[in-house]
Amino acid sequence: MVQKKAKSRWGAGVVNQLCLDFKTTFPDVRGFSVRNLYYMKEWYEFYMTDDEHKQILHQLGAKLQ
Q: Is the pLDDT of residue 48 over 70?
């Protein structure tokens, strides 16, 4: 999904709008700055490109539930 969005060339405008939408929807929650959203995307892409990372994340997710 991330790669599909990157191919559509939405650009930084979408990330800026997403940041504003998060701040409007969750006014008391911090951490949705433009920079942090890009960090979240990079983290996701890094861990989802490797099957071993995927397995570890799924195991951690299962434990959290």
A: yes
